[in-house]
């Protein structure tokens, strides 16, 4: 039996066979059909339907960045860990990577001027890398703090060297997220659509957020991907965090809702954990975030949590019977054969 027939038999067993033809060719599914997928009570059938849609959009490729995590300049941080998976700006030179990400707990009253200097300092240190930083809530906060518009904030940050917006756990639960991303697109950015949810919200609340992001995706065409971001990371208490079943269903529904307008669905190992992130590659996801760049790695000993290096991420992708493709923050492919991360092909 072929893989497609196996997937279809799972979908048929859940009473969703009527959606197969449209989903497998990447057609737009109306909200009523998305509700059927949620109500069928069969997350594996939802995953099978979403995986057929994923295969239509991206084939066997799974894209992944190689991220150098930069400690926010001027923001207090905890002591550096032994693996050096986050770096000071002055230590970035020579670290192989394909994108930079600013990390660290930023003050709630961060002024726009400091945000601009943070962005500029990273771009000066590594002009070869695309930079991902600041989520939609932060853009809103910067505008409110300085008494200006989000369009002005976005323009200033773009001029300083910001390439795309970041995301955080739970982002997108606020209706403002869609408005900020629409403004970002109108300001020339391409971004990843954050679809946030919390325990018990994979239902009408999630579909409301998908409706808002789908409207932006269809109007602007400037989402490079969409990402499911539960509001609690993998180490949350089971009483607070989402279940793996909810995360599987959310990923599948996001693919089915947005796949006609957004090519990639991203899974972030920093949010859902590397094991579940790898599983979601069979549930509609086609992009894996989690590979970190480091100047050196600690010896493989001890029971502490280990960061993901690019080789481990590629292994996860291959184990899912997919082909790993390295990308930058704007989803441009890196020419792996050059051996020089940051060198883009045409």
Description:
The protein is an alpha/beta fold and 346 residues long. The strands form three sheets. The chain has a four-stranded parallel sheet with strand order 3-2-4-5, covered by helices on one side. A four-stranded parallel sheet has the order 6-7-8-9. Strands 1-10 form a two-stranded parallel sheet. It has helices spanning 3-13, 17-24, 31-39, 43-58, 112-125, 136-146, 150-160, 176-186, 204-220, 244-258, 269-272, 274-279, 310-319, and strands spanning 61-65, 67-71, 86-87, 99-103, 130-132, 191-197, 223-230, 264-268, 287-289, 323-327. Helix 1 (3-13) runs antiparallel to helix 4 (43-58), helix 5 packs parallel to helix 7 and helix 6 packs across helix 8. The protein is built from 13 helices and ten strands. It has a single domain, classed as TIM Barrel, CATH 3.20.20.70.
